[in-house]
Amino acid sequence: MLLNASGCLDALLAPDVARSLDGFVTKTITPLPREGNAAPRIAETAHGMLNAIGLANPGRERFLSETLPRLRELGVPLWISVGGFCARDYADTCAVLDDVEAIELNLSCPNVDEAPESAAEIVAACRAATALPLYAKLSAAHSDVAAVARAVADAGVDGLSLVNTLRGMALDPKTLAPVLARGTGGLSGPTLKPVALGAVHACYAATKLPIVGMGGVTTGRDMLEMIACGAKHVALGTILFSDPDAPARVSDELQEAAEALGVVQPGDVFALAHEGEKRLDIASIVAA
After folding, report:
1. How does residue 75 score in pLDDT terms, banded at 50, 70 and 90?
2. Rounded to whole angstroms, what are the CA distances from 108 to 148, 189, 216, 219, 267?
3. pTM of the model
4. What is the number of other CB atoms lying within 10 angstroms of the CB of residue 21?
5. Residue 260 in 3-state DSSP?
6. Backbone φ/ψ region at 213: left (φ over 0), alpha (ψ -120 to 50), beta
7. Are the C-beta atoms of residues 149 and 163 closer than 8 Å to each other?
8. In 10 A of CB 287, how many CB atoms?
9. What is the pLDDT of residues 27-59, one digit of tens each?
């Protein structure tokens, strides 16, 4: 399944792009409306982008009454990204959602203050509030992301989203002052891909849960590598800002990348990076 990373696509402004995906992930919704951080809150880097949006959103009530009905009209499976500043914030939003594909719990936004509870405590509260599939979105900034993955798995998540952005900074070349008003922001784009692959690999080995792999995916080959590390689904993020046709292109390139390795379907390489014997088989096909 090919998705968008939360916050990287406005489906109501670009409905055709949203329909080219297998599912659409909303911006993170919080209980109360948020204007987000002060501008400037976007900065380009040599190999990616920094953002400090700060979870700007209309709030839960307006989302449910105005935005969600319009999103349903697109006919695309919906994943709702849920955020908050305590476990109850998350759980209360989960409790009022229904008839959606999944809920993604944003447990790792680098641009706002985090909830005082642990990721596992938040997941447990949400699990008690809903029977819908829950995915925990984690950051690779943690010293042991696999340990966090095991903790949220024990608390009841159905899957993982890996990875969220990493905190970084860009300086103005003339003044050497931070470009972003907040100072730091979340780093995304191609520079994040090796980190994302490592996190997907580690967390799949630790939990065997379904994983949405994201971070620096710009080509079909990138998507294939995410699948090989253990991602069942893959999300496109920063690339959607510069290439709205990326979903169709990446899907075509994925099949081409698989065929270049001598496999019939991209799914044939699932978790290949964990299986030494199968890796040797693929290597012999390529060498031939």
Report:
1. very high
2. 11, 17, 17, 25, 29
3. 0.94
4. 23
5. helix
6. beta
7. no
8. 6
9. 999 999 999 999 999 999 999 999 999 999 999
What is the average pLDDT across 105-111?
A: 87
Distance CA 181, CA 162 (A): 27
The residues that are catalytic are 109
Identify the CA nearest to 135 among candidates 164, 103, 109, 176: 103
Per residue in 35-63, is it b (16+ CB within 10 Å) or e — as a string?
A: eebeeebebebeebbbbbbbbbbbebeeb
Domains of the chain by start residue, with CATH: 2-287 (3.20.20.70)
Token pair recorded at residue 7: 């916050």
Q: What percent of the chain has pLDDT over 70?
A: 95
Share the mean pLDDT of the chain.
Answer: 94
User: For the ranges 110-114, 178-182, 254-258, 261-265, which has the lowest average pLDDT?
Assistant: 110-114
Question: For residue 186, what is the enclosing H or E element?
Answer: strand 185-188
Enter the tokens of residue 94. 């989960």
Residues with Cβ within 8 Å of residue 168, at least 6 apart in sequence = 45, 50, 184, 185, 186, 187
- Which pLDDT score is estimated for 278? 61
Q: Collapsing DSSP states into helix, strand and coil, what is residue 287?
A: helix
DSSP letters for 116-164: SS-HHHHHHHHHHH--S-EEEEE-TTSTTHHHHHHHHHHHT-SEEEE--
Residue 19: other Cβ atoms inside 10 A: 13
pLDDT computed for residue 116 by the predictor: 78
